[in-house]
Amino acid sequence: MTDLVILQREQLNLWWEKVRSKADRMIRDIGDASPHVSASGVYDDMRVDWWTSGFWPGMLWILHEMTGNDGYRDSAWVWDARIERCFVTANNLHHDVGFQFLPTAVIKHRLTGDEDARRRALAAANFLAGRFNLNGRFLRAWNQEKTGWAIIDSMMNLSLLFWASEASADPRFRQIACAHADTVLKHFIREDGSVHHIVAFDPETGEADEYLGGQGYAPYSSWSRGQAWALYGMAIACRYTGNKRYLRAAQRVAHYFISCLPEDHVPHWDFRTPDPQSQPKDTSAAGCAASGLLEIAGLLPNEEGRIYRRAAENILKSLTEHYATLDEPDYQGLLREGTGNKPAGQNVNVSLIYGDYFYMETLAKLLGWPNRVF
After folding, report:
1. How far is Cα 13 from Cα 15, in angstroms, rounded to an integer?
2. What residues are annotated to the active site?
3. Per-residue pLDDT at 4 exceeds 60
4. Strand pairing partners for 43?
5. Are 139 and 154 within 8 A, CB to CB?
6. Average pLDDT in the 279-308 region?
7. Tell me: the pLDDT tens digits for 231-250?
8. What is the CATH T-level fold of the domain 9-366, as seen in this structure?
Protein backbone atom coordinates (compact mmCIF):
# COMPACT_ATOMS: atom_id res chain seq x y z
CA MET A 1 0.00 0.00 0.00
CA THR A 2 1.44 3.37 -1.03
CA ASP A 3 0.48 6.99 -0.44
CA LEU A 4 -0.04 6.66 3.31
CA VAL A 5 -2.15 9.57 4.46
CA ILE A 6 -1.47 9.53 8.18
CA LEU A 7 0.87 6.75 9.18
CA GLN A 8 4.52 6.73 8.24
CA ARG A 9 6.39 3.52 7.48
CA GLU A 10 8.70 3.99 10.45
CA GLN A 11 5.70 4.00 12.80
CA LEU A 12 4.10 1.02 11.07
CA ASN A 13 7.35 -0.95 11.30
CA LEU A 14 7.59 -0.23 15.02
CA TRP A 15 4.07 -1.50 15.59
CA TRP A 16 4.73 -4.53 13.41
CA GLU A 17 7.78 -5.52 15.42
CA LYS A 18 5.75 -5.30 18.62
CA VAL A 19 3.00 -7.44 17.08
CA ARG A 20 5.55 -10.00 15.91
CA SER A 21 7.17 -10.11 19.33
CA LYS A 22 3.78 -10.68 20.99
CA ALA A 23 2.94 -13.42 18.49
CA ASP A 24 6.21 -15.19 19.33
CA ARG A 25 5.23 -15.20 22.99
CA MET A 26 1.72 -16.39 22.15
CA ILE A 27 3.06 -19.31 20.10
CA ARG A 28 4.93 -20.49 23.15
CA ASP A 29 2.02 -19.98 25.55
CA ILE A 30 -0.88 -21.12 23.36
CA GLY A 31 0.77 -24.23 21.95
CA ASP A 32 -1.70 -26.30 19.92
CA ALA A 33 -4.81 -24.73 21.47
CA SER A 34 -7.52 -23.15 19.32
CA PRO A 35 -7.94 -19.65 20.79
CA HIS A 36 -11.22 -17.77 20.65
CA VAL A 37 -11.66 -15.48 23.68
CA SER A 38 -9.17 -13.96 26.11
CA ALA A 39 -11.21 -12.59 29.01
CA SER A 40 -8.34 -11.94 31.43
CA GLY A 41 -5.22 -12.09 29.32
CA VAL A 42 -5.28 -15.85 28.74
CA TYR A 43 -6.81 -17.34 25.60
CA ASP A 44 -9.21 -20.26 25.91
CA ASP A 45 -9.02 -23.48 23.89
CA MET A 46 -12.16 -23.74 21.76
CA ARG A 47 -13.15 -26.85 19.86
CA VAL A 48 -11.66 -27.04 16.37
CA ASP A 49 -15.02 -27.11 14.55
CA TRP A 50 -15.83 -23.67 16.04
CA TRP A 51 -15.95 -20.93 13.41
CA THR A 52 -12.91 -19.05 14.75
CA SER A 53 -10.40 -21.92 14.47
CA GLY A 54 -8.75 -20.57 11.33
CA PHE A 55 -7.76 -17.13 12.60
CA TRP A 56 -4.78 -18.02 14.79
CA PRO A 57 -3.09 -20.12 12.06
CA GLY A 58 -4.01 -17.34 9.63
CA MET A 59 -2.00 -14.92 11.73
CA LEU A 60 0.94 -17.34 11.61
CA TRP A 61 0.80 -17.59 7.83
CA ILE A 62 0.82 -13.79 7.53
CA LEU A 63 3.84 -13.65 9.83
CA HIS A 64 5.59 -16.30 7.75
CA GLU A 65 5.03 -14.45 4.49
CA MET A 66 5.97 -11.08 5.94
CA THR A 67 9.17 -12.30 7.62
CA GLY A 68 10.26 -15.41 5.74
CA ASN A 69 10.61 -17.15 9.10
CA ASP A 70 9.85 -20.84 8.65
CA GLY A 71 9.00 -21.23 12.32
CA TYR A 72 5.68 -19.50 11.72
CA ARG A 73 5.00 -21.80 8.76
CA ASP A 74 5.78 -24.86 10.86
CA SER A 75 3.39 -23.73 13.61
CA ALA A 76 0.61 -23.11 11.08
CA TRP A 77 1.16 -26.20 8.93
CA VAL A 78 -1.08 -28.76 10.66
CA TRP A 79 -4.19 -26.64 11.07
CA ASP A 80 -5.99 -27.40 7.80
CA ALA A 81 -5.61 -31.13 8.46
CA ARG A 82 -6.90 -30.69 12.03
CA ILE A 83 -10.01 -28.86 10.85
CA GLU A 84 -10.57 -31.28 7.96
CA ARG A 85 -10.91 -34.17 10.41
CA CYS A 86 -14.11 -32.54 11.70
CA PHE A 87 -15.84 -33.56 8.45
CA VAL A 88 -15.67 -37.24 9.41
CA THR A 89 -16.72 -36.82 13.05
CA ALA A 90 -19.75 -35.29 14.74
CA ASN A 91 -19.42 -31.54 14.15
CA ASN A 92 -21.23 -28.22 13.78
CA LEU A 93 -19.50 -26.92 10.64
CA HIS A 94 -21.64 -24.47 8.69
CA HIS A 95 -21.46 -21.33 6.52
CA ASP A 96 -18.24 -20.20 8.23
CA VAL A 97 -16.00 -22.88 6.71
CA GLY A 98 -14.51 -20.02 4.70
CA PHE A 99 -13.25 -18.46 7.93
CA GLN A 100 -11.69 -21.82 8.75
CA PHE A 101 -10.13 -22.92 5.45
CA LEU A 102 -9.18 -19.61 3.78
CA PRO A 103 -6.60 -18.68 6.47
CA THR A 104 -5.33 -22.28 6.61
CA ALA A 105 -5.66 -24.47 3.52
CA VAL A 106 -6.02 -21.79 0.82
CA ILE A 107 -3.12 -19.62 1.94
CA LYS A 108 -1.02 -22.72 2.65
CA HIS A 109 -1.51 -23.88 -0.93
CA ARG A 110 -0.78 -20.44 -2.33
CA LEU A 111 2.45 -20.08 -0.39
CA THR A 112 3.77 -23.64 -0.55
CA GLY A 113 1.97 -25.40 -3.39
CA ASP A 114 0.86 -28.16 -1.00
CA GLU A 115 -1.67 -30.31 -2.88
CA ASP A 116 -3.32 -31.69 0.25
CA ALA A 117 -4.13 -28.13 1.26
CA ARG A 118 -5.72 -27.53 -2.15
CA ARG A 119 -7.77 -30.71 -1.81
CA ARG A 120 -8.99 -29.73 1.65
CA ALA A 121 -9.94 -26.24 0.53
CA LEU A 122 -11.90 -27.58 -2.45
CA ALA A 123 -13.71 -30.04 -0.18
CA ALA A 124 -14.69 -27.15 2.09
CA ALA A 125 -15.89 -25.15 -0.93
CA ASN A 126 -18.05 -28.07 -2.01
CA PHE A 127 -19.49 -28.23 1.50
CA LEU A 128 -20.28 -24.51 1.43
CA ALA A 129 -21.80 -24.72 -2.05
CA GLY A 130 -24.03 -27.53 -0.77
CA ARG A 131 -25.67 -25.05 1.62
CA PHE A 132 -27.07 -23.00 -1.26
CA ASN A 133 -30.86 -22.62 -1.29
CA LEU A 134 -31.89 -22.61 -4.95
CA ASN A 135 -35.26 -20.87 -4.57
CA GLY A 136 -34.02 -18.17 -2.22
CA ARG A 137 -30.57 -17.85 -3.85
CA PHE A 138 -28.81 -17.68 -0.48
CA LEU A 139 -26.29 -19.68 1.55
CA ARG A 140 -27.91 -21.18 4.60
CA ALA A 141 -26.53 -19.97 7.92
CA TRP A 142 -25.89 -22.25 10.89
CA ASN A 143 -27.56 -25.63 11.35
CA GLN A 144 -30.31 -27.15 13.51
CA GLU A 145 -33.76 -25.68 12.84
CA LYS A 146 -32.54 -22.55 11.03
CA THR A 147 -33.19 -23.92 7.55
CA GLY A 148 -34.15 -20.57 6.01
CA TRP A 149 -31.74 -18.24 7.77
CA ALA A 150 -29.02 -16.26 6.03
CA ILE A 151 -26.63 -13.85 7.75
CA ILE A 152 -24.40 -10.99 6.69
CA ASP A 153 -21.28 -12.78 8.03
CA SER A 154 -21.49 -15.14 5.05
CA MET A 155 -20.22 -12.39 2.74
CA MET A 156 -16.76 -12.96 4.19
CA ASN A 157 -16.91 -16.67 3.27
CA LEU A 158 -17.58 -16.08 -0.42
CA SER A 159 -13.84 -15.86 -1.10
CA LEU A 160 -13.68 -19.63 -0.62
CA LEU A 161 -16.16 -20.10 -3.48
CA PHE A 162 -14.47 -17.55 -5.72
CA TRP A 163 -11.09 -19.17 -5.09
CA ALA A 164 -12.49 -22.66 -5.75
CA SER A 165 -13.96 -21.54 -9.06
CA GLU A 166 -10.53 -20.34 -10.20
CA ALA A 167 -8.66 -23.31 -8.72
CA SER A 168 -10.96 -25.91 -10.30
CA ALA A 169 -12.06 -24.04 -13.45
CA ASP A 170 -15.62 -24.81 -12.33
CA PRO A 171 -17.98 -21.82 -12.73
CA ARG A 172 -20.64 -23.18 -10.36
CA PHE A 173 -18.74 -21.92 -7.29
CA ARG A 174 -18.57 -18.40 -8.71
CA GLN A 175 -22.22 -18.53 -9.75
CA ILE A 176 -23.33 -19.47 -6.24
CA ALA A 177 -21.16 -16.74 -4.70
CA CYS A 178 -22.60 -14.11 -7.02
CA ALA A 179 -26.17 -15.29 -6.46
CA HIS A 180 -25.72 -14.99 -2.70
CA ALA A 181 -24.10 -11.56 -3.03
CA ASP A 182 -27.05 -10.42 -5.16
CA THR A 183 -29.44 -11.61 -2.45
CA VAL A 184 -27.48 -9.65 0.14
CA LEU A 185 -27.72 -6.57 -2.07
CA LYS A 186 -31.49 -7.00 -2.31
CA HIS A 187 -32.43 -8.01 1.22
CA PHE A 188 -29.65 -7.08 3.66
CA ILE A 189 -28.22 -3.68 2.73
CA ARG A 190 -30.64 -0.87 3.47
CA GLU A 191 -30.88 2.30 1.43
CA ASP A 192 -28.86 4.31 3.96
CA GLY A 193 -26.01 1.76 3.99
CA SER A 194 -26.93 0.11 7.27
CA VAL A 195 -27.23 -3.66 7.28
CA HIS A 196 -29.49 -6.39 8.66
CA HIS A 197 -27.73 -9.18 10.51
CA ILE A 198 -30.21 -11.99 9.80
CA VAL A 199 -32.85 -12.44 7.13
CA ALA A 200 -35.18 -15.43 7.60
CA PHE A 201 -36.43 -16.81 4.29
CA ASP A 202 -39.08 -19.42 3.64
CA PRO A 203 -36.80 -22.33 2.76
CA GLU A 204 -39.38 -23.75 0.32
CA THR A 205 -40.40 -20.62 -1.59
CA GLY A 206 -37.34 -18.48 -1.01
CA GLU A 207 -39.46 -15.49 0.05
CA ALA A 208 -38.05 -13.21 2.76
CA ASP A 209 -40.23 -13.72 5.84
CA GLU A 210 -38.59 -11.82 8.69
CA TYR A 211 -35.66 -9.61 9.65
CA LEU A 212 -33.98 -10.56 12.92
CA GLY A 213 -31.67 -8.58 15.19
CA GLY A 214 -29.30 -11.48 15.81
CA GLN A 215 -26.16 -10.15 17.46
CA GLY A 216 -27.38 -6.60 17.00
CA TYR A 217 -29.56 -4.60 19.35
CA ALA A 218 -32.78 -5.09 17.37
CA PRO A 219 -34.05 -5.98 13.87
CA TYR A 220 -33.93 -2.31 12.85
CA SER A 221 -30.56 -1.60 14.44
CA SER A 222 -27.07 -1.62 13.00
CA TRP A 223 -24.64 -4.16 14.47
CA SER A 224 -21.22 -2.69 13.82
CA ARG A 225 -19.40 -5.95 13.06
CA GLY A 226 -22.16 -6.79 10.60
CA GLN A 227 -21.45 -3.49 8.87
CA ALA A 228 -17.77 -4.47 8.69
CA TRP A 229 -18.56 -7.92 7.26
CA ALA A 230 -20.72 -6.26 4.60
CA LEU A 231 -18.31 -3.57 3.42
CA TYR A 232 -15.39 -6.00 3.32
CA GLY A 233 -17.40 -8.81 1.73
CA MET A 234 -18.82 -6.64 -1.02
CA ALA A 235 -15.34 -5.37 -1.82
CA ILE A 236 -14.21 -9.01 -2.11
CA ALA A 237 -17.06 -9.75 -4.52
CA CYS A 238 -16.01 -6.81 -6.70
CA ARG A 239 -12.34 -7.83 -6.59
CA TYR A 240 -13.15 -11.30 -7.91
CA THR A 241 -15.82 -10.33 -10.44
CA GLY A 242 -15.13 -6.74 -11.46
CA ASN A 243 -18.83 -6.02 -10.91
CA LYS A 244 -19.11 -2.38 -9.89
CA ARG A 245 -22.51 -2.93 -8.24
CA TYR A 246 -20.69 -4.75 -5.48
CA LEU A 247 -18.13 -1.96 -5.15
CA ARG A 248 -20.83 0.71 -4.92
CA ALA A 249 -22.58 -1.33 -2.23
CA ALA A 250 -19.30 -1.64 -0.32
CA GLN A 251 -18.84 2.13 -0.55
CA ARG A 252 -22.39 2.81 0.64
CA VAL A 253 -21.93 0.62 3.70
CA ALA A 254 -18.50 2.14 4.31
CA HIS A 255 -19.90 5.67 4.20
CA TYR A 256 -22.52 4.74 6.76
CA PHE A 257 -19.93 3.01 8.96
CA ILE A 258 -17.52 5.95 8.88
CA SER A 259 -20.30 8.46 9.56
CA CYS A 260 -21.34 6.55 12.69
CA LEU A 261 -17.91 6.31 14.27
CA PRO A 262 -17.29 8.14 17.55
CA GLU A 263 -14.40 10.56 17.94
CA ASP A 264 -11.83 7.86 18.55
CA HIS A 265 -12.77 5.99 15.32
CA VAL A 266 -13.57 2.71 17.14
CA PRO A 267 -17.23 1.70 16.94
CA HIS A 268 -19.59 0.73 19.68
CA TRP A 269 -21.01 -2.77 19.25
CA ASP A 270 -24.20 -1.41 17.64
CA PHE A 271 -24.74 1.99 16.05
CA ARG A 272 -28.45 2.20 16.92
CA THR A 273 -28.81 1.61 20.62
CA PRO A 274 -30.81 4.10 22.71
CA ASP A 275 -27.69 5.44 24.45
CA PRO A 276 -24.71 4.46 22.28
CA GLN A 277 -22.09 6.35 24.28
CA SER A 278 -22.76 4.13 27.28
CA GLN A 279 -22.40 0.94 25.26
CA PRO A 280 -19.33 -1.32 24.92
CA LYS A 281 -16.98 -0.86 22.01
CA ASP A 282 -16.14 -3.63 19.55
CA THR A 283 -12.52 -3.55 18.48
CA SER A 284 -13.08 -6.63 16.31
CA ALA A 285 -15.53 -4.64 14.19
CA ALA A 286 -12.95 -1.87 13.94
CA GLY A 287 -10.17 -4.21 12.79
CA CYS A 288 -12.34 -5.93 10.19
CA ALA A 289 -13.67 -2.64 8.87
CA ALA A 290 -10.18 -1.14 8.59
CA SER A 291 -8.98 -4.05 6.48
CA GLY A 292 -12.11 -3.88 4.34
CA LEU A 293 -11.71 -0.14 3.83
CA LEU A 294 -8.25 -0.80 2.43
CA GLU A 295 -9.79 -3.28 0.01
CA ILE A 296 -12.25 -0.64 -1.18
CA ALA A 297 -9.42 1.86 -1.59
CA GLY A 298 -7.48 -0.61 -3.71
CA LEU A 299 -10.38 -0.95 -6.14
CA LEU A 300 -10.56 2.80 -6.81
CA PRO A 301 -8.31 5.40 -8.40
CA ASN A 302 -5.97 6.93 -5.85
CA GLU A 303 -7.90 10.18 -5.52
CA GLU A 304 -11.17 8.35 -4.80
CA GLY A 305 -9.61 5.71 -2.60
CA ARG A 306 -7.81 8.14 -0.32
CA ILE A 307 -10.80 8.72 1.96
CA TYR A 308 -11.08 4.97 2.66
CA ARG A 309 -7.34 4.66 3.34
CA ARG A 310 -7.54 7.63 5.67
CA ALA A 311 -10.44 6.06 7.56
CA ALA A 312 -8.60 2.74 7.82
CA GLU A 313 -5.47 4.42 9.13
CA ASN A 314 -7.45 6.47 11.65
CA ILE A 315 -8.98 3.24 12.97
CA LEU A 316 -5.63 1.43 13.11
CA LYS A 317 -3.95 4.35 14.86
CA SER A 318 -6.67 4.53 17.51
CA LEU A 319 -6.67 0.77 18.04
CA THR A 320 -2.91 0.75 18.50
CA GLU A 321 -2.73 3.75 20.79
CA HIS A 322 -5.79 3.10 22.96
CA TYR A 323 -6.85 -0.56 22.76
CA ALA A 324 -3.81 -2.64 21.86
CA THR A 325 -1.70 -4.60 24.36
CA LEU A 326 1.55 -4.43 22.40
CA ASP A 327 3.56 -3.38 25.47
CA GLU A 328 2.12 -6.13 27.68
CA PRO A 329 4.14 -9.21 26.75
CA ASP A 330 2.34 -11.58 29.13
CA TYR A 331 -1.16 -10.65 27.93
CA GLN A 332 -2.52 -13.08 25.32
CA GLY A 333 -4.36 -11.04 22.74
CA LEU A 334 -3.56 -7.98 20.65
CA LEU A 335 -6.72 -5.91 21.24
CA ARG A 336 -8.92 -5.34 24.27
CA GLU A 337 -12.60 -4.31 24.28
CA GLY A 338 -13.93 -6.74 21.74
CA THR A 339 -17.63 -7.60 21.93
CA GLY A 340 -18.70 -11.05 20.84
CA ASN A 341 -22.46 -11.29 21.41
CA LYS A 342 -23.86 -8.49 23.55
CA PRO A 343 -27.56 -9.51 23.42
CA ALA A 344 -26.62 -12.95 24.74
CA GLY A 345 -24.28 -11.42 27.34
CA GLN A 346 -21.38 -13.40 25.91
CA ASN A 347 -17.78 -12.23 25.56
CA VAL A 348 -18.08 -8.51 26.25
CA ASN A 349 -14.92 -6.43 26.82
CA VAL A 350 -12.55 -9.22 25.87
CA SER A 351 -9.86 -10.01 23.34
CA LEU A 352 -11.22 -11.92 20.33
CA ILE A 353 -8.96 -13.89 18.03
CA TYR A 354 -10.69 -12.59 14.91
CA GLY A 355 -10.22 -9.03 16.14
CA ASP A 356 -6.52 -9.80 16.57
CA TYR A 357 -6.40 -11.35 13.10
CA PHE A 358 -7.95 -8.41 11.26
CA TYR A 359 -5.82 -5.94 13.22
CA MET A 360 -2.71 -7.81 12.08
CA GLU A 361 -4.06 -8.10 8.54
CA THR A 362 -4.65 -4.34 8.32
CA LEU A 363 -1.16 -3.58 9.54
CA ALA A 364 0.37 -6.10 7.12
CA LYS A 365 -1.55 -4.59 4.19
CA LEU A 366 -0.26 -1.12 5.00
CA LEU A 367 3.26 -2.54 5.06
CA GLY A 368 2.83 -4.03 1.60
CA TRP A 369 1.71 -7.60 2.31
CA PRO A 370 1.30 -8.96 -1.22
CA ASN A 371 -1.24 -11.71 -0.57
CA ARG A 372 -4.91 -11.83 0.34
CA VAL A 373 -6.63 -14.46 2.46
CA PHE A 374 -10.18 -13.21 1.99
Report:
1. 5
2. 96, 153
3. no
4. 38
5. yes
6. 98
7. 999 999 999 999 999 999 99
8. Glycosyltransferase (1.50.10)
